[in-house]
Design brief:
By secondary structure, the chain is an alpha/beta fold. Helix content is 37%, strand content 20%.
Length: 92
């Protein structure tokens, strides 16, 4: 299996998107994660998932202006470029 460039869009379930993104790194894929639709809830589950992202080397980005102080903010053009540059886009 060749390495793929994967992009996970965290639209509906941020916690599950973080778990999926981290899991995809097991196969050696390059994985990006973009939080969308709203800020990530401050829960123990999400805190653990953030640690998992750090361990797997995933540096999330966001389209949510309220998260711009903590993560790189993507505008529509940057999001479109990220999506078209990926081999596979998963929306979770």
């Amino acid at each position: 299996m060749s390495e793929k460039k994967l992009l996970v869009l965290a639209r509906h379930d941020h916690a599950e998107a973080m778990r999926v993104a981290a899991g995809l790194t097991i196969f050696g894929h390059q994985v990006g994660l973009v939080f969308m639709t709203g800020p990530v809830a401050d829960t123990p589950e999400n805190a653990a998932n953030v640690e998992l992202l750090e361990l797997t080397g995933i540096a999330p980005q966001t389209t949510v202006a309220a998260m711009a102080a903590d993560l790189p903010l993507l505008d529509a053009a940057a999001l479109a470029l990220a999506m078209t540059s990926a081999d596979i886009v998963l929306s979770i």
